[in-house]
Amino acid sequence: MTSPQGACLRAALQVGYHLLDRGSSALVAVEQAIRVLERSGLFNAGTGAHLQLDGVRRMDASIMEGHSLCAGAVASIEGIVHPITAAHLVMEHTPHVLLAGPMATKFARHFKMERQPFTRRPRRFSYDTALRKTAHNRDRHGTVGAVALDRFGTVAAGASTGGIDCMLPGRVGDTPIIGCGVYADNEAGAVSMTGLGEGIIRLAVAKSICDLLERGKTPAMAARLVLQKLVARIHGAAGCLVLTPQGRFTIRHSTPHMMAGYWAGRGIPVVNDTFR
Ligand code: GLY
Ligand code: GLY
Questions:
Q1: Helical spans, DSSP H, in 25-77
Q2: Which of 40, 105, 116, 275 is the most buried (most CB within 10 A)?
Q3: pTM of the model
Q4: Mean pLDDT of the region 37-64
């Protein structure tokens, strides 16, 4: 896989792995790997995030750690390059889990987070037209995410997104909702989701997969069962990264494609466009 996106995924995997190799936590590896993807502008996250129907880029991100079960998230944050780091700051510096909207942006400003070079003012839009557009949403994917396991046996998961193709201003997807887009528990595993957020929220997919892991299912089986239910019950479309504290993992999707990869330090990182 030699596309720009493929090369960027490889770079992100290398950044994450080298951190783990030097003793960093899974949480830091996840955050730093996602920062590579957010900065690239090649994915629907960070500088490449989709615009909402009023022309504004509002982004969502979350991160969670499996030892402490600590989590942080931001929803509808604007104007910064790295929402995943804003999510980490919410986790580290506040007693809260989720900050949303203009006050999430203000929080990021307080920490002097790097700003995106061009931020647009909202443009006029009509709900009549917008509601027609959102009814025919053919989602292009591109949420970014990562899971990691560190040498202390702790797992972490994170995700960052600009949402979906056609969305009303203010729409929030699964990505910043703990248990939906992301979950991590050392007694089960770490899960990061991509796909159409409305379906992922309704089945609390990340936590559902973790619950099956905790009951002894393999990552492949847990992912398959939950994705099958998502498709069968609500015609959802999603993909997941799943990793256990024992180092077992799977990458699975109900969508035709999902570009993803893995690396454990030998050879070059494996990156593919489909996983079956
Ligand atoms: N709906 C965008 C994604 O999850 O990839
Ligand atoms: N999965 C990302 C979103 O639906 O916003």
A1: 26-40
A2: 105
A3: 0.95
A4: 95
